[in-house]
Amino acid sequence: IEKAVLAGYTAFTRHDAAEAGERLLALGPVRIKPVAETGGRGQSVVHAIGELTMSLAALSDNAFAEHGVVLEHNLSNVDTLSVGQVRVAGILASYHGRQRLTRDNRGAVAYGGSDLTVVRGDFHALLATLPPGPVRKAVDQALLYDASVRQCFPGFYASRVNYDVAQGIHAGGEWSSGVLEQSWRIGGATGAEIAALEAFHADPGLHTVRASCIEEFGPLAPPPASAVVYFQGEDPEVGPLTKYTVVHTDGDTA
Questions:
Q1: DSSP 156
Q2: Is the separation of the CB atoms in 98 and 79 below 8 Å?
Q3: Domain covering 77-247 in this structure, CATH number
Q4: Nearest by Cα to 91 from 238, 234, 204, 230
Q5: Hey, where are the domains in the chain?
Q6: What are the Cα distances from residue 51, in Å, to 32, 83, 138?
Q7: What's the first-to-final CA gap in the chain, in angstroms?
Q8: Rounded mean pLDDT of the chain?
Q9: Whole-number pLDDT of residue 251
Q10: 2-74: CATH superfamily
Q11: Average pLDDT over residues 227-235
Q12: 253 pLDDT higher than 70
């Protein structure tokens, strides 16, 4: 799986995390990610041993023992892509997409939605639409990661799989790409996935759908007229929030 992920470590003790961080700092800034956090929350980037020590000290013993902490090379000029597949009601669809970032109600960077290109069929059908380049690289890495999962867990089945892939420049100046995490449950892009499945169900000749799911924080502005709104109101954890999906009308038909 080494070729599918960014260089880094997962540590389950403070000592191991400190050692891993020191090794990575020799090559450049390090991103620290508590595994139990979601949506990019709780992460920090350190540039020196002192910062590493402070960041690790801020984490609870339970964060290490129960879930673990990821330490990896920090990338600049980052794009986060999504690669996934859904299988519902006899329809199989696979997709690639790009995540968008926004600011939450506290001003912190947060997930702001995804723009997906969804094709009818399996991952091979998706690959057939992609020329060599960063997007195809992301799909290839996601497939390698997925194959490794299925090798480790014989009989594994999920009606929805999603892999986030980060692409950017590491401290050495080289372009890097790697799977960040897997999601085998309802996720941030699920609204767009459902919209694509509905479009395929409505038109058996449709082969490609572009769909976007949007998350907007702050004042509750009206969404586009064509949007399917999943939530608009006061979220008890993050405050004012609007979530909706839009299907774009330039899909291909047979």
A1: -
A2: yes
A3: 3.30.470
A4: 204
A5: 2-74, 77-247
A6: 11, 33, 31
A7: 37
A8: 92
A9: 47
A10: ATP-grasp fold, A domain (3.30.1490.20)
A11: 95
A12: no
